[in-house]
Amino acid sequence: MNTLQTWSLFVLTLPTGNATARMRFWRALKAKGCAVLRDGIYLLPYSEEREATLRELAAAIADSGGSAWLLRAPSVDASQEAEFRALFDRVDDYDAFIRALSDSRKTVAGQSAADLTKLLRRLRKDYETIAAIDYFPGEAATRAEVAWQDFVAHVDTVLSPGEPHAADRAIRSLSVADYQRRTWATRRRMWVDRVASAWLIRRFIDRDARFIWLTSPEACPADALGFDFDGAAFTHVGERVTFEVLLASFGLDKDPALLRVAAMVHALDVGGTSVPEAIGFEAIMAGARERAADDDELLADMGRVLDSMYTHFAASEKGSGSGKRS
Question: Could you give the CA distance from residue 311 to residue 286 in angstroms, rounded to a whole number?
């Protein structure tokens, strides 16, 4: 037996003498994905979190001179349930988003890394805005997700051609002492995972490392240690990106500050849990790649950024630990 949906009913009268406040409240209702039953009556599928946000909005409306009441009730029957659910149909929104992806795809070639980063950020925000208020996702949501992932993959091939596939193998424990004064090689025109891995190698593994920037993985010399391409000595393994594989291989994954860098690199390279510092680092990386004459200069520039981030993370982790002990 199917349980009928419970709804939050929001009945309000907005202040008549404050146009700015009225506009602010209308925008807030739209951002929450509220459906309009009639003038002054809005509907949302019930959840504790959504009802809490409506209560906050009701208080703000009352403070501005209006009034608002929040009610809760289930659908009367299956027919009414279907009618109410139809009010939250996001098919048109998703179709418009997919068209925007198609139009944007035509402009990707030839754009700078900075411009592509901005484009991805804007479209990601558009997608997440729709998904956040799609309370009854269906086929349209699936189509939009597939189109979005395909678009992200396409941009990734422009920003980082030759991105490796994840290998299915164990990660061996290695000694830093066995990897000194070596030649390391990766694909040229570095992006996030490669630049962070090169920084990690020079800072924590092989301080006298020599780097070769490859035009293609096939150009890797036999005596060089390749990283972040298919068939390389160090590359993606399972869910881990190359930076994380290097951490695990050389026993560096006990350092909390490096793990915070790793979380950022992972989020930017393959997605996943959002990291606050990721957007800023991505923007700096895009700008540095446009400015740098070659990958040696890019590594020097981004190495200083990563040095600063590591120092900050180490200090904050130390402070957090001190706070816990006290």
Answer: 22
Fold held by 6-86 = Alpha-Beta Plaits (3.30.70)
Give the pLDDT confidence score for residue 326 in this predicted structure.
34
d(CA 44, CA 48): 11
Helix, strand or coil for residue 164? Answer: coil
Say if residue 69 is exposed, middle or buried (CB neighbours under 10 Å; 0-12, 13-18, 19+).
exposed
Instruction: Give the span between the Cα atoms of 223 and 243, in whole angstroms.
Output: 21
Write down the pTM of the prediction.
0.60
Instruction: For tokens 């790793």, name the residue.
Output: 262
What is the SS3 string spanning 98-125? HHHHHHHHCCCCCCCHHHHHHHHHHHHH
- Residues linked to residue 237 through DSSP beta bridges, in sequence order: 167, 240
d(CA 47, CA 313): 37
- Hey, is 12 helix, strand or coil? strand
Partners of 183 in the β-ladder? 210
Q: What residue spans in the chain does CATH classification 3.30.70.240 cover?
A: 6-86
In the numeric block, the tokens 């990386």 are attached to 285
Cα end-to-end span (Å), the chain: 54
pLDDT in tens, 234-279: 999 999 999 999 999 999 999 999 999 999 999 988 887 878 898 8
The contacts of residue 178 (CB under 8 Å, 6+ apart) are none
